[in-house]
Amino acid sequence: MCGICSAIGNFNEIFDVIERLRKLEYRGYDSSGIAYKENNNLEVVKSVGQIANLEKRIGRNLSSQIVIGHTRWATHGKVSEENAHPHMSANGEFALVHNGIIENYEDLKKIFLSDVCLNSQTDTEVFVNLIARQKGPVINKLIEACNLVKGSFAVAMLEKNSNKIYLAKRKSPLMVAQNENGCMAASDLSVFVGKFEKCYIMEDDEFAVMSEKNIVFFDKSGKKIKKNAVLINNFDFCDENLNEEYFMLKEIKEQAIVLKRTYFKYFSENTLSEAEISKIKKYKSFHFIACGTAYHSGLMGARYIQQFCKKECKVSIASEFRYDNNVLNKNCLYVFVSQSGETADTIACANLIKEKGFDVMCVTNVPYCSLNKLADIILPTFAGREVAVASTKAYVAQVFTLLILAIKLSKNLELQESLKKFVLSFDILQLDDALLKFLYQFNNIFYIGREQDYVASLEGALKMKEIAYINCIGLAGGELKHGTLALIDENSLVIAISTQKKLKEKMESNIQEVKARGGKILLVSNFEHSVEVDHFLQLPEFEEFLMPIVSITALQLMAFHYAVELGYNPDKPRNLAKSVTVE
Ligand code: M6R
Q1: What is the mean pLDDT of residues 418-437?
Q2: Composition of the chain by helix, strand, coil, percent to 5
Q3: Which of 428, 454, 477 is the last residue of a domain?
C-alpha cells in the first residue's frame, strides 16, 4: 500500500507535499516522511503515526523546492522510524520513497549488497542501494535496478547532485502533473485537484524525470517517449458540502447525493452506451470477482442480474478465485468490482482472465485506476472520492450501479421508474439514542438475514468488525441452527435484517430460535413482525429490491456510532488501509 507525493517547483514545496500527503493517508498511516534538498545535501525527516506527527517534527521554518514524501502501510518490517520512508542509500547519494513490494529483495541483498550495512528491515532500503550500485547517468541506474527487481513499485527518488525527481512505475499507481510553477508526482489523482488541470498516467515499466519546468518520460530501454495528458475532472473528487467530524459519517450522509448522481449519469448522460449494453447482453453468464465490501456488492449484483435478466451468475472472492481450478467460459463476462481499482488480488485475477483471452468488465470508482486498464468494458461508479477506510458510499454506489446494469439489460421501464422515485425520496435515516444505548451493551453480535438481507448481514458485520473491533459474524438466517446457534446466550445480540415479506415467517422462526436460547434481538425491518423483539428499528418502506440500500445505511451507522462510543477513530481503523495493493 503506501502513498507517494513528490514535488519540484519555484516555491517552498515542503508544506504543499505534506498537505497533499494527507489525501493519501487512506493508503496507510503507520508512519510518514519526507526527503528534501538543502544546498547540495539530502535531508530526511520521518515520524511514526499520522502525518500530523510529521508536521510537528518539521516545524514551520524548513524550506526546499524539491521534496519527496511518503505515507506508509507496513509490509516489510514493523512500524518504526527506521522502517519509515524515505530510505537513503548507504553512500548518501539517493533518497527513495516506494509503494509496492520487492519480492526478490532477500536475493538482491545477498547477490549485490552483502557489503552494505542496512538500517531497516525494508525491501525499499535494498532497492535504493541497488540503484546506487548501478552505472551511468541517474536515470539509467534507476532503469537498470528496476530490471533486476521482481514485484511492484511506484517510486520517487532524489539524487544529491541533481535538481530533479526520478520516477519509476510497475504495478503500483503513479501519475504526474505540471503547471507553470512546477511538477508533482502522486499515487492518486485526487492529490492534484485544485492545483493542476491535466496529468499524465504512468504505465508499467515507464520512467520519468521531473524538473521545475518539464517532465521527460522514458521506456524501459531508456528511450524517450511521448505521453498524452488527461484532464482531471474535479467532479469525480469533490467532497460534498457536508461538515462532519469524521469522513465516514460524511460519506454515509453523502449516499443520498451519490444515488441521484449515479441515476443521472446512467439515465441522462447515458454513461453506458447502447452498443455496450448490446455487447453485455450477448454473454450467457456473469462471474463477479472482488474482495471485502466489493465482494458483497458482487453478491448483490449477481442477485439483481439473476432476478431481472434470468442469467446465471457466480461470485468469487478474488484471493480464492486466483488459485481455484476455475472452468473458464468465453460466454461468461468476468466482472471485477473495486472501489480503488488498485486491489492486488482483484487485479491479479483480471490479469489471469485477460491472459486466457476472456472478457473483463470493471466496476470501479477511481478513473484511470490500474484495473480499468485491463477492462473491455468499464462501468464507473460515481461515489466521488471515498476517504474513510470503511467503505460506505462506494458500496451503495456499486450496488446501485449493478442494479442499473440489470435494469438496462432487462429493458424494464417500470423498474427504471421505480429507481427514479427512489432516488428522489431516499434520505439517510437517523438512529435514536435508545437504540444506540441498547446496542452498546453487547460485544458479541450476530447479523442474520436471508437472500438479499443475508448480503446486508455480511456487510453490516464487516463494518462493525473493522471499525469498532467487535468480533461479530454475518450469516444466513437458515444457517443459525447448523452450528452458530451453539454460541447464542443471554449476552448475545442478534441483529435480524428482514426486508422481504415473502420470508417474514422464516425470519420469525430464526428469531424464535435465538430467543429460546436467551439471545437478544434487534430487528431491522420495514414492516411489523408478529414476534416480540428487544428492539425494533423501523426502516422506511420502498420496493423490496431497493431495501438492501436502505438497510445497509442503518448498519453502517450502527458501526460508526459504536466505534465513536468506544473512542476509536472510525476513519482510520487499526491494521487496515483503504487500498490493499499487496496480495
Ligand atoms: O478498493 P476495493 O474495493 O477493491 O477494496 C476491497 C476491500 O479491500 C474493501 O472493500 C474493504 O473490504 C473495505 N475497507 C471494507 O470496508
Answers
A1: 93
A2: 40, 25, 40
A3: 428
